[in-house]
Design a protein that fits this description.
- By secondary structure, the protein is α+β, with helices and mostly antiparallel strands.
- The chain has 3 helices and 6 strands; from the N terminus they run αββββαββα.
- 32% of the residues lie in helices and 26% in strands.
- The protein has a 6-stranded antiparallel beta sheet.
- Helix 1 crosses helix 3 (93-109).
- The protein is globular.
Length: 127
C-alpha cells in the first residue's frame, strides 16, 4: 500500500466514527483528526512520505513496531503512546482500520463519560 492510499483509508475510517472533526491547524501540511477536541490521529508528509500518527497502548505500540517495519515511534509525539504508520508492503486496509479505530477508542476512553460520543469498549468501525 502506498502512503496516499494509507491516508485515504484512514480518512474514510474517521468519517464513520462518531463525533470526529478534522482541521488543519498547525500548518497546511498537518491534518488533525479529533474527537471531543482531543487529537487521535494526525496526517502529514515526512520528507516525501505520507504518514499517519496514531495513539496506541504502550504495549501494543512496542509489539507493532517489532512486527511491522512500516510502523515506527510517533513522529513529534510521545514515543511511548504514539506510533507513525507509513505505506509499505506490511500494511494493509484491515490493519489501518484497526489502528485508527483503536486510537479513537483510546482517546474516547480518556474522556469524561458525559463527553463520550460512543462507548469505547463496544464502538466498532462500521462494516
Amino acid at each position: 500500500m502506498d502512503g496516499e492510499e494509507l491516508q485515504k483509508i484512514a480518512r474514510d475510517v474517521t468519517a464513520e466514527l462518531p463525533g470526529t472533526d478534522q482541521e488543519h491547524r498547525l500548518d497546511p501540511d498537518w491534518e488533525l483528526h479529533k474527537v471531543a477536541g482531543k487529537v487521535f490521529m494526525l496526517m502529514t508528509d515526512m520528507p516525501g512520505r505520507p504518514v499517519l500518527i496514531l495513539k496506541a497502548d504502550p504495549d501494543d505500540a512496542t509489539a507493532l513496531r517489532e512486527r511491522y517495519p512500516d510502523i515506527t515511534p510517533g513522529y513529534h509525539m510521545n514515543k511511548t503512546h504514539w506510533i507513525t504508520v507509513q505505506g509499505g508492503d506490511t500494511i494493509d486496509d484491515k490493519l489501518v482500520e484497526e489502528l485508527v479505530t483503536d486510537s479513537y477508542r483510546l482517546v474516547v476512553a480518556g474522556l469524561p463519560k458525559s463527553r463520550r460520543p460512543a462507548d469505547p469498549h463496544t464502538c466498532n468501525h462500521p462494516a
